[in-house]
């Protein structure tokens, strides 16, 4: 559906297979169709079927939300590496039209966005970032927009913050 900007690798094809077979993700109905070798580009497909259809016969909103839910967090954890902490903080979905066919979503973290995130961590230590992606059909018509708010921090700062919090809890 989407044209990948980068190539994949054998390791990412294995990761894609593992994600698609992981029971929690499998139940969403979403299937990863492409994961770039560096994890910067992830494509998901969600077919309209028995497990994703709602009462009125269109795509269940919970399937759209849950199939998109873990992707940005996993991407950023992989792209940033072990010196960073990434947590999901919130998610929202804005429906544009009923999903009456197979839909696709692309999660793209550009080199510029990644550099900006690293720079912000250096200057701010921690911050929240909102990222959005659209569920579209093969023609590119938008059916829903998923927005995620993620917490990002340097691991050293986060661990120190946890230690300080635990000291306060021990005193009370």
Walkthrough of the structure:
This protein is α+β, with helices and mostly antiparallel strands and 172 residues long. It has one domain: Thiol Ester Dehydrase, Chain A (Roll). The chain contains six helices and six strands. The protein has helices at residues 10-21, 23-26, 61-68, 71-80, 111-124, 155-171; strands at 30-35, 41-46, 84-95, 103-108, 126-136, 142-154. The protein has a six-stranded antiparallel beta sheet. The protein starts with 9 loop residues before the first helix and ends with a helix. The mean pLDDT is 94.
Task: Draw up the topology in text.
Elements: H1 10-21, H2 23-26, E1 30-35, E2 41-46, H3 61-68, H4 71-80, E3 84-95, E4 103-108, H5 111-124, E5 126-136, E6 142-154, H6 155-171
Antiparallel strand pairs: 1-2, 2-4, 3-6, 4-5, 5-6
List keywords for this structure.
172 residues; alpha+beta; Thiol Ester Dehydrase, Chain A; six-stranded antiparallel β-sheet
């Amino acid at each position: 559906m989407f044209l990948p900007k980068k190539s994949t690798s054998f390791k990412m094809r294995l990761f894609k297979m593992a994600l698609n077979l992981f029971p929690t993700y499998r139940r969403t109905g979403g299937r990863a169709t492409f994961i770039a070798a560096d994890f910067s580009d992830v494509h998901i497909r969600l077919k309209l079927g028995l497990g994703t259809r709602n009462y009125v016969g269109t795509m269940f909103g919970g399937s759209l939300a849950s199939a998109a839910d873990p992707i940005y967090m996993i991407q950023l954890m992989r792209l940033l590496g072990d010196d960073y902490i990434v947590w999901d903080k919130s998610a929202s979905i804005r429906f544009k039209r009923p999903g009456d066919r197979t839909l696709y979503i692309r999660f793209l973290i550009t080199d510029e966005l990644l550099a900006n995130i690293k720079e912000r961590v250096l200057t701010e230590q921690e911050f929240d970032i909102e990222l959005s992606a659209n569920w579209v059909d093969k023609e590119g018509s938008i059916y829903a927009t998923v927005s995620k708010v993620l917490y990002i921090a340097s691991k050293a700062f986060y661990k120190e913050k946890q230690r300080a919090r635990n000291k306060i809890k021990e005193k009370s």
